[in-house]
UniProtKB/TrEMBL annotation, chains A, B:
Keyword Flavoprotein in record: yes
Annotated ranges, domain FAD-binding PCMH-type: 50-229
Gene3D superfamilies referenced in this protein's UniProt entry, alphabetically: 3.30.465.10, 3.30.70.2740, Vanillyl-alcohol Oxidase, Chain A, domain 4 (1.10.45.10)
Name of the protein in question: Glycolate oxidase, subunit GlcD, putative
Family matches, as SUPFAM superfamilies: FAD-binding/transporter-associated domain-like, FAD-linked oxidases, C-terminal domain
Pfam families, alphabetized: FAD-oxidase_C (PF02913), FAD_binding_4 (PF01565)
Alphabetic keyword roster: FAD, Flavoprotein, Oxidoreductase
Presence of keyword Flavoprotein: yes
Cofactor field: FAD
Entry's family note: Belongs to the FAD-binding oxidoreductase/transferase type 4 family.
MF terms (GO), sorted A to Z: FAD binding; oxidoreductase activity
Species this protein is from: Nitratidesulfovibrio vulgaris (strain ATCC 29579 / DSM 644 / CCUG 34227 / NCIMB 8303 / VKM B-1760 / Hildenborough) (Desulfovibrio vulgaris)
Length: 471, 471
């Protein structure tokens, strides 16, 4: 683990004052506030494997406790770092300066699922997949499905505007947040938005908080839009002899007027990597693969699958397989899901990015990334949500080998420059956090960053919310 | 027309100073700046029929001219009122204080339509329907379809976050704005967002500008997301003996997992009103109607229509008709489109609202509005986008009769209170403008309004952009 927090020796030694510690002891019962390094250490990191040292960890169970905490922390000018399951891969949950980590895991109740209003009201600590199962049991559908959905929380999904496989057709977390409650520094409770599916009264504070990476306030409740649950789903996995053929297939599908639920891409390095963990069903000539999902009614779906297959066929796949319904689809998706665990068989460390380019620039982006990998003698795994132009770039390396680490870091900068030169963005769904913060000025103008800083100051005048992150 | 602008006699007489007039004459060629009351009067009103008096009207053709104008106006502390086609029904375009009206109608170029990136780049004055036709000719689809689409502009659509019939399935304007350029007071050009379909770097300035009703800056370019064009559409119009049966049908359709493209409702007063202009095909027993649209592939669509019809049938409609393809569908939609012209056969004036309630509270809202109408001896036409909970409420009256006008105004307040008591919102798609501004404090908290004011101050420190509107 790399240690990035700028904790001075003095601060680290002093920690909280006796009065500060007494405040937290008065606010929360034992077990819900942690002070010892043994207990707090794990709350100083996230899936980025960056690490900071919390002065204390608190686990409020009520909004009233969050109010008291943020009133006090603001007066004390103490940074507050909200977190739930910390699946964030960019260091968004890492305490960059000494401060209080606020875990929302004890605020994890599904408050309401309403099949008439088509909304769910949840606390931030609710696990995304738990919510999905709960609403599906009632014939409802919450589409955002980040790859971390089985372990990530709604609070984190909202804070990062999480995407997922189904974003091509159904959009991202932003598109499902109708209302929210957030405690602001100073302790005021912002209740904004509603249970209405449309609402255009005033500036859009709801979407301003979505994706704000915990820099404006601490979410305590989220109202989410639900859809009717489609009756059936089907998937098609197709293998091509090269990238060009796969990109032709993508083009054919859209040109046929088909908007798939999901459209995932796996490059040659990824296919080799997946073959390390799985018995892959395709021939060795497959050097690029596309994985589609469709949904619809049981009656109509087979016809839609036929149309999709015909559009793909025009790009001459060397292999393909169709699965109708969850049981048949699951094996096709297992390979996609194994990429992350399989990647560590290639190298022990990865630098993970989720760059996004305009959809038409995908081929250039993928070819450019491969050229960077070759020039630096690195394996770079590229896969992801090709329907959105959103590519997961995993620069594999061994961080204990100085030269490899340096090459990987240089490659990350080169990939960033390549993506920006194609009109792309640093992040499609992970956010900026700590790891992309050094690159943000390459994408955002001084004017944009100035406006963002002023907006932040309106919510958080003393800069206590998740400082050092995002923008 | 009612005159709402707070122009003092002194200001109205003085108008622009000689130096101010000289500046505008230097900035723009003759014909692109108007000063005489005869020429400017029409730019002081919009579809709300509210009216103010512009000091001058300017019609820039380039962003550079907008930059110069906003630099100067900010220094002069002169209000600026952006407008395009002024189809706004809430007075959003009306100069509430003496200032400069900035017409974007000479910035009306479709700059780019890209079938690989699936984006369109347009200037603010482009007519929505013109863009739709242009992209459809290339097999692409821009879903937002406000009722005004044949005469309204993309700039206005973005400024109000316009909705439309297709919002049930495809969302609203917000969901299609990927990037934009806007000139801020002082003349800085904010270029934010991109051509990427996903982007989560920094606070969401793009969506902050969407729906901001011209209060933050002047749009000069918008990058919109496009979808593949569905192959075919079909519509179903169903008549029911009462509101309850129609609401049952809505419930059945969603419960069957069907998410229609459009789901429009027409109440009994609206059906009577439509019958004044059209030979309606249904029997007199029809007192509520639903109009659905579906889309999909030519092969699968008939099966989807069958499923929809079956779900509707369970609610015992007394009459129904199906149209497959544009030619067959058109007659079904003519009736819906005739509501606005037909309404003026009932009474010469209307107070028009677009309140929205949580989807499950629709029946209560519609019944409550009818009770208000009866108690006040008024005809209130209710129709709209029932799939979103978005109801158009038209309080018909004769404004020249004092008592009727007063009853109508009282009814508007009562409808507002009813909607808010059901957890609803003042506006689903029109915005606040001038006409709803007196009611905003009933919906937005002091904290929300305070934050909005601070955000506005970051963009527009001297408050010159469309003052007196929205929040």
């Amino acid at each position: 683990m790399s240690h990035t927090a700028n904790v001075t020796a003095e601060e680290a030694v002093h920690g909280l004052s006796a009065a500060q510690r007494r405040f937290l002891e008065g606010l929360l019962p034992e077990g819900d506030r942690l002070f010892s390094a043994e207990e707090t250490l794990v709350f100083g990191t996230d899936a980025s494997r960056k690490c900071g040292t919390p002065l204390a960890v608190v686990r409020p169970t009520t909004e009233a406790q969050v109010v008291e905490l943020l009133r006090w922390a603001d007066a004390e000018r103490l940074p507050v770092y909200p977190r739930a399951r910390a699946t964030n891969v960019v260091g968004g949950c890492v305490p960059q300066r000494p401060g209080i980590v606020l875990s929302t895991l004890r605020m994890a109740r599904i408050i309401d699922i309403d099949e008439h209003d088509f909304v769910a009201v949840v606390q931030p600590g609710v696990i995304t997949a738990d919510l999905q199962r709960a609403v599906e049991a009632r014939g409802l559908f919450y589409p955002p499905d980040p790859a971390s959905q089985n372990i990530s929380s709604i609070g984190g999904n909202v804070a990062t505007c999480a995407g997922g496989m189904r974003a091509v057709r159904y959009g991202v977390t932003r598109d499902y947040v109708l209302g929210l409650r957030a405690v602001l520094p100073g302790g005021e409770v912002l209740a904004t938005g509603s249970r209405c599916h449309k609402n255009v009264v005033g500036l859009d504070l709801v979407r301003l908080l979505v994706g704000s990476e915990g820099t404006l306030g601490c979410l305590t409740e989220v109202t989410l839009k639900l859809l009717p649950l489609p009756e059936a789903t089907a998937s098609l996995l197709a293998g091509f002899s090269d990238l060009g053929a796969a990109m032709d297939a993508v083009r054919n599908v859209f040109a046929a007027g088909i908007l798939p639920v999901a459209l995932e891409f796996m490059g040659p390095e990824v296919l080799d990597c997946a073959a390390l963990l799985n018995d892959v069903p395709w021939p060795k000539t497959v050097r690029a693969a596309l994985l589609f999902r469709l949904d619809g009614s049981r009656a109509a779906l087979p016809l839609e699958v036929d149309r999709l297959a015909a559009a793909v066929r025009d790009a001459a796949p060397v292999w393909s397989a169709v699965g109708v319904g969850r049981d048949e689809e699951e094996p096709l998706w297992t390979i996609r899901r194994s990429i992350n665990p399989a990647s560590f068989l290639v190298k022990p460390d990865k630098m993970s990015d989720d760059v996004t380019v305009p959809r038409g620039r995908l081929r250039e982006a993928l070819e450019g990334i491969r050229a960077i990998a070759e020039a630096r003698s690195l394996t770079i795994l590229t896969f992801g949500h090709v329907g959105d132009g959103n590519i997961h770039v995993n620069i594999m390396h061994d961080a204990s080998v100085t030269e490899e680490r340096e090459h990987a870091l240089a490659a990350k900068g080169e990939v960033t420059d390549l993506i920006l030169s194609l009109g792309g963005t640093l992040s499609g769904e992970h956010g900026v956090g700590l790891t992309k913060a050094p690159y943000v000025h390459r994408q955002l103008s001084k004017l944009e960053r100035g406006l963002m800083a002023q907006v932040k100051a309106a919510f958080d005048p003393h800069g206590i919310m998740n400082p050092g992150k995002a923008y």
